[in-house]
């Protein structure tokens, strides 16, 4: 059993290391865009480009937190190489190994909170400037270049995050992909609004665009907060649990699934089951059945560990 866990951990650590390099690249891209957009927004007097710059600043913080969460999971793995002994107990060791990867979810949750705070700040600033738009200086054409550069860069970042997240099967990187897609859309919206301001001379459009961008940031942050929060409390979709139960009950020897508990840890999913079997089933047969259940759940759903408890069918 330990050898199996070592293989799982080694594979997960390798995937996390790949995701870490992606996130460090994200941070560099966000930092570059933040500086470029902030300078051009100041020169060109654009509220929407200023809001987009701070959206990218939130991306810097988010990428940093997600990287820290992944680094923590890797570091804890490397510093915890103890062997399972009779005193440790398999269940205690199992929980310790799973908890190691929950740092990803915790830091993802924190990045969602920071995005929400940033969004509120951007919205408030946009509303404030909307009501004093007559005192705001005219937007310069140089700001369009900043928004165009940000749009292109963020689309590239989104593509590589999504592809990397799918290849590595890493929930943190997939969350970063959602964030970068939202950032790309806000940059495109900024580009469109600035073009409208310059073409039609609607000064208020710049402030309205910054407010819309703020709501985009808020929606993305809320989604990330919700998803990571549900994973931290081990919330499982009832339909997913129903699919698990249906699959297990089709395995020969299982009379009924009496209880199921799904545990999430980063990209890993583990199950604890209580199943009813024939009271005449031997210990050897029950062991073979538990191994068969674990193999089926791993092959069909990618579940890394399934713990089975047996009770006689009454």
Automatic annotation (TrEMBL):
<dbReference type="InterPro" id="IPR027469">
    <property type="entry name" value="Cation_efflux_TMD_sf"/>
</dbReference>
<dbReference type="InterPro" id="IPR036837">
    <property type="entry name" value="Cation_efflux_CTD_sf"/>
</dbReference>
<feature type="transmembrane region" description="Helical">
    <location>
        <begin position="181"/>
        <end position="202"/>
    </location>
</feature>
<feature type="transmembrane region" description="Helical">
    <location>
        <begin position="208"/>
        <end position="225"/>
    </location>
</feature>
<keyword id="KW-0813">Transport</keyword>
<dbReference type="Pfam" id="PF01545">
    <property type="entry name" value="Cation_efflux"/>
</dbReference>
<feature type="domain" description="Cation efflux protein transmembrane">
    <location>
        <begin position="102"/>
        <end position="233"/>
    </location>
</feature>
<feature type="transmembrane region" description="Helical">
    <location>
        <begin position="53"/>
        <end position="74"/>
    </location>
</feature>
<feature type="transmembrane region" description="Helical">
    <location>
        <begin position="106"/>
        <end position="124"/>
    </location>
</feature>
<dbReference type="GO" id="GO:0016020">
    <property type="term" value="C:membrane"/>
</dbReference>
<comment type="similarity">
    <text>Belongs to the cation diffusion facilitator (CDF) transporter (TC 2.A.4) family.</text>
</comment>
<dbReference type="InterPro" id="IPR050291">
    <property type="entry name" value="CDF_Transporter"/>
</dbReference>
<dbReference type="GO" id="GO:0008324">
    <property type="term" value="F:monoatomic cation transmembrane transporter activity"/>
</dbReference>
<feature type="transmembrane region" description="Helical">
    <location>
        <begin position="20"/>
        <end position="41"/>
    </location>
</feature>
<keyword id="KW-0472">Membrane</keyword>
<feature type="transmembrane region" description="Helical">
    <location>
        <begin position="136"/>
        <end position="160"/>
    </location>
</feature>
<protein>
    <submittedName>
        <fullName>Cobalt-zinc-cadmium resistance protein</fullName>
    </submittedName>
</protein>
<keyword id="KW-0812">Transmembrane</keyword>
<feature type="domain" description="Cation efflux protein cytoplasmic">
    <location>
        <begin position="243"/>
        <end position="304"/>
    </location>
</feature>
<dbReference type="InterPro" id="IPR002524">
    <property type="entry name" value="Cation_efflux"/>
</dbReference>
<dbReference type="InterPro" id="IPR027470">
    <property type="entry name" value="Cation_efflux_CTD"/>
</dbReference>
<keyword id="KW-1133">Transmembrane helix</keyword>
<dbReference type="InterPro" id="IPR058533">
    <property type="entry name" value="Cation_efflux_TM"/>
</dbReference>
<dbReference type="Pfam" id="PF16916">
    <property type="entry name" value="ZT_dimer"/>
</dbReference>
């Amino acid at each position: 059993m330990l050898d199996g866990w070592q293989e799982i951990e080694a594979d997960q650590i390798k995937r996390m290391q790949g995701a870490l390099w992606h996130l460090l690249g994200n941070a560099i891209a966000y930092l570059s865009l933040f500086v470029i957009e902030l300078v051009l927004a100041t020169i060109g007097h654009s509220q929407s480009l200023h809001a987009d710059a701070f959206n990218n600043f939130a991306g810097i913080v988010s990428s940093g937190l997600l990287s820290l969460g992944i680094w923590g999971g890797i570091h804890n793995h490397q510093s915890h190489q103890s062997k399972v002994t009779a005193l440790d107990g398999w269940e205690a060791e199992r929980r310790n190994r799973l908890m190691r990867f929950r740092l990803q979810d915790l830091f993802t949750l924190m990045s969602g909170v920071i995005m929400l705070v940033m969004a509120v700040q951007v919205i408030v600033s946009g509303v404030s400037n909307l009501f004093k738009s007559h005192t705001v200086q005219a937007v310069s054409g140089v700001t369009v270049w900043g928004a165009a550069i940000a749009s292109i860069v963020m689309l590239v970042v989104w593509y590589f995050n999504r592809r990397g997240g799918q290849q590595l099967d890493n929930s943190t990187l997939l969350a970063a992909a959602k964030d970068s897609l939202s950032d790309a859309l806000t940059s495109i919206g900024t580009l469109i609004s600035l073009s409208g301001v310059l073409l039609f001379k609607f000064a208020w459009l710049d402030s309205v665009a910054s407010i819309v961008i703020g709501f985009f940031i808020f929606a993305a942050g809320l989604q990330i907060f919700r998803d990571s929060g549900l994973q931290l409390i081990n919330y499982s979709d009832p339909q997913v649990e129903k699919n698990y139960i249906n699959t297990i009950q089709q395995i020969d020897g299982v009379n009924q699934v009496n209880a199921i508990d799904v545990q999430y840890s980063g990209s890993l999913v583990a199950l604890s089951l209580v199943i009813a079997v024939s009271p005449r089933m031997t210990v050897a047969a029950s062991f073979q059945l538990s191994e068969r259940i674990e193999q089926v759940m791993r092959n069909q759903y990618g579940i890394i560990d399934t713990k089975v408890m047996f009770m006689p069918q009454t």
